Amino acid sequence: MNMLAITDEDIEYAAGILNISNSFDVPRLNVIRCMESRDIVACPGSGKTTILLAKLLILTRHLPLKNNKGICILTHTNIAIDEIKERLGDKANALLSYPNFVGTIHSFISKFLANPAFVQYHSSRISRVFEPEDYKSRLVRKYKSLYPPFSGSKLGGFLYGRLEKKVKDSTDKNKIAKAKDDLLRSLELDYIDNTIKKNAFNKKTTVLKNPDSDAYKEYINLIDQLQKEGICSYNEIQGLAFRYVENFEKELQSIFSERFSFVFVDEMQDTSLLQLQVLEKVFDTKKVVFQCFGDPQQTIYESDDKGCAWKPRDPLFIKNSNRLSESIAKVADVIALNPYGMQGRKHQNGALISPVIITYKGDDVSHVLKTFSKLINRHKLNERENALFKAVGMVKAKNEGLSITSYFPEFQKFEVRSKVNKEFSELQSYLVKLDREVIKKEGVKAYYNRFILAILKWLRIKDIRTNEGEFFSGISLLKYLRENDERLYKTVHRYFARIVLSIENEKSVLFSFKYIIAIVTNRVFRIEVDIYKDEFLNGTPIIKTTAADEEKENSFEYDNLRIEIESVHGVKGQTHTATLYMETFYFSKTNESIIKYLIGEQQSSGIEEHVEKHIRVAYVAMTRPTDLLCIVLNESVYLENEIELKQMGWVHHLEVLN
Q1: At what angle are helices 48-61 and 26-33 packed, to 10 degrees?
Q2: pLDDT tens across 141-177, in order?
Q3: Domain range for residue 386?
Q4: 625 in Cβ contact with 577 (< 8 Å)
Q5: What angle do CA 91, 93, 98 make, to 5 degrees?
Q6: 651-652 and 588-589 as β-strands: parallel, antiparallel, unpaired?
Q7: Is the pLDDT reported for residue 313 higher than 50?
Q8: How far apart are CA 611 and CA 591, in angstroms?
Q9: Which residues contact 72 (CB under 8 A, 6 or more apart)?
Q10: Domain check: are 149 and 221 in the same one?
Q11: What is the CATH number of the domain that holds 24?
């Protein structure tokens, strides 16, 4: 095990680089100095990433490590990777070279495990990894080619047997065939327990668990046949890796123990059970310092509602939040499934704002957004510079009961692709923050694509073409730029990486991007640009702060105040000045179902799955704001629990506004 000791001088060095004025407090120092395999549980707004960066800065001072071993840093998104690179600056260069590794969990699993597994089991390489829907389409086509109608397919018989009676009784053969195809698309192999599950309505149900059955074997054969063609999905990539580490666990542990002294995993709560088991098998925590950073309370992405796969080992806690006020931290901590005494920041002027409950009668929530706006104005939060106000809910579209559309009928969710590749008439609209779901789906390349689209739009406006007289495409532009000015080509790519973080932090990059366009146009195409007068470069977009102009429909305006409407999943990781958590309906009313938690009465066992999800989603929503937290509750439920709610620190909206 590594015996490297971190000194006071190391701490001062890291604090100076990261501009930490008062150095680090004791809980954060304990994490930075920890040189053993332990997990770090950090509350929302605790500056977890800064602590990890401090640790990395100190370790880079000691490179090369003993026996020339390296550091492995794993995250969930490329955005997180870019943040590490951006904040460490040139200090990151040492981390980006062998034997170190900085990348996403997916890239680590693909490079070091899935690719060699593919060679091991198929004597070839992966040719392409498809998104789930594309992969399932290929799976269906493979099924039809291997098991055509009347072939006696047992899988076909299984699919037919699980169709609804009204479909089976139909005389429309096309309708039956489509229903079978849809059911086949919903199936997925669970590599942990080797069962085949149906994934529908965010719920996974085991449908085939006997590996000796013919239907099971035929489904596995479909996966094998696609893999022989080099075709995989992300699930199959991770499945291959899991099979590989199951077969070669000791050998892989030896290899990775020889290469790495330290392994750090960020946002560990977002790690799936399959990813977790792969990581735990390849890293020997007795030979490698293996540390995971995160907050298990903030897991809301598990499709089967099973909660967080990560169970922290002998964790170090960072309980004091730099984001939440004392009053918000108090009510948010008790809503956690496993409270650990989260503490809020001390208020400077003593003007602590109590969390507010906005009540409604029946199912009439038409007044709620206006009431939230009035509360913001009453506390003068609208006078804050760069203030951000959001109203969030769990259920977007109305099915039964309350949803986000109950509060704001115009709320819509737009397709990811239309947001990313839409063409605009002004530069600013290309340079805005993308939705979390876009980044989760496409990674940082979603931003790069938009930047390239902006330059292509500019070139078309100026009628700048290739030597063949055609308008540039993304590929031809990059090729032309590299061939004619390789130094500028590299500069542009470095600039792209840098401004992604600025946009994610909601900083304007308009002027610098105009300057880049001007440089490219002048140096490569010998055309002068007036960046102050051009209509495209200086045009005013309809909306300046959202991913696409359609999103204006997802904002509520009242008395010169703008409140953005979003799902809780969309704001995970964000910080707001004020947040409203709207009650919606998912099996039951989301806030009413957790009233015992809201009044501080923990339920020790027997929590229904959907209620557990209500708790986890509420925790994420309630830990977004810095100053004002509001939740929505039915009036009758509030009155039944009024005394206990007030003891916890909640106030009724009429107490503030009257």
Answers
A1: 40
A2: 999 999 988 888 999 999 999 998 888 888 888 889 9
A3: 324-412+551-657
A4: yes
A5: 130
A6: unpaired
A7: yes
A8: 9
A9: 100, 101, 108, 256, 259, 260, 262, 263, 264
A10: yes
A11: 3.40.50.300
Query: Contacts by 93-96 with C-beta closer than 8 Å and gap 24+?
Result: 94/60, 94/63, 95/56, 95/60, 95/71
Among the listed residues 634, 603, 602, 629, the one whose alpha carbon sits nearest the alpha carbon of residue 618: 629
The span from the CA of 595 to the CA of 465, in Å, is: 63
* Whether residue 434 sits in one domain with residue 393: no
Q: Find out whether 516 and 493 touch, Cβ atoms under 8 Å.
A: no
- Separation of alpha carbons 529 and 459, rounded Å: 12
| The Cα angle at residue 467 between residues 491 and 459, in degrees rounded to 5 | 55
pTM, to two decimals: 0.76
The per-residue pLDDT for range 595-622, each reduced to its tens digit, is 999 999 877 677 888 899 999 999 999 9
Cα Rg, the chain, nearest whole Å: 27
Q: 471 and 426: one domain?
A: yes
Q: Is 40 helix (H, G, I), strand (E, B) or coil?
A: strand
The C-alpha angle with vertex 365 and arms to 363 and 369, in degrees rounded to 5, equals 165
Label residue 230 left, alpha or beta by phi (over 0 means left) and psi (-120 to 50 means alpha): left
Q: Give the alpha-carbon dihedral of 440, 442, 447, 449, to 10 degrees.
A: -170
Residues contacting 90, CB < 8 A, separation 6+:
none
Give whole-number Cα distances, 296 to 118, 250, 572, in Å: 33, 29, 13
How far, in Å, are 52, 557, 601, 621, 641 from residue 372 at the CA level?
36, 11, 27, 15, 21
C-alpha pair distances (Å), 277 with each of 239, 248, 253, 283: 11, 14, 13, 10
**Residues in contact with 213: Cβ distance below 8 Å, sequence separation at least 6, in sequence order:** 154
> For residue 460, what are the contacts with CB-CB under 8 A and spacing of at least 6?
471
